[in-house]
Amino acid sequence: MMPSVTGKTAVSVRLPLSFIGAGVVSLLLGQLVLLFHGALVMDMAFRSPGMWMAAHFLVLGWGMLVAMGTMYQLVPVTFQTPLYSERLGFIQFGITTAGVMLLALSLGFYPSLAREAGGLVLAGTLLFLFQMGLVLWRQKERDMISLFVSSALISLLATLLAGLILAVSISGAMKIFLDAIGAGFLYPINHEALFASHVLLGLVGWFTLLIMGFSYKMVPMFALSHGFSMMPSYWVYGLYTGGLLTTLAGIWMDTAGIIRIGFVLLLTGFSLFAFHISRILRKRMKKQLDPGFSFALLAIGGGWLIHLAGVMILLLPVSWKSDAFAVVVYGFVMIWVTFSIMGYLFKIIPFLWWTHRFSKQVGQDGVPTLKEMVDERSGIQVFLLLAVAVIGVMISMVEGWWFLFMVTQGLVVLSVLRYSQLLIGVLRK
To answer: Global pTM?
Structure first.
């Protein structure tokens, strides 16, 4: 069961689906770029134009656009507060999508355009934050979900600002600006710390806090769970955000001990989150869980393993850390973030489209049930193939096996294509 999308909190289905559609296209483009730049992946040359392009297609184009679209649908309904302007949402979609696509392509082919493209992304994101901020501000009753979502939005803004500062400072424009305002003593900026903060804030602050927050809404809803306590979520939030802030401090202080403490806090917070979700599932009334939802739950287990790997890597010799962290970041993006999003979308999109097309025709002949909106059997096959393929890619990165990478990355592309086909099939009903 999904929350009602009727009344003043409802938005046109075209708004979230526009973001989601652009996001799925970006996911496919990002995976194709990785496939064509397999040599860079095998050489662990991740600070190269091709890898920057792939990363921004996957993180900004796929992750951020889909998250924005989903939030336009879920936030007003979850918090029972209408958007400021649906029209502004479409304007923001145009600006942000154009900026994301231009930024990813410019990083790969025309680095000189990165600042302008980044400015478009920032402008679109600020419009998004304005809309979401108003919804949260006008919310009558605040809870832990709104705290997770608010913190994720703050992290999103910090992520984009760090990325923009990084792009501007590398070009030399930052030095000119700081000299002009009499703050030249701040230059040179610590690019390594800024880059690490950019990645950490995006993956841990924006995506993870957002997925955690909405998981506390969607897991009970999809599993029909009742009578559970939300008290552990306070500890989850405190430990995880504490770990994020501690790690950031360690990065800027260049202190390995503080970074280790931060990583341990992140692992502890995520472990408690996984345990809490398992307790919520024990209170469920629905015995048979849907394939997409099950895949999103599998992502939680994968996310825990990724966090554990992050802590263990800190014990490795310094010369091994960089390559090992690259594999962990890939796993974080694919196993935790991407699997979570794909799993939840497999449940959300059929509901949105069914409500849009058939909610006023209930009881009439030819109206499909919600379960008939999507091919669940094919979905199971896609999810299993994708999971095996991603694990294969990670193994190939660790061992340097070129042939295995080409095969498994090719299977990732095929899985994404088939997943997209299944979602398009929903929209044809």
So the answer is: 0.89
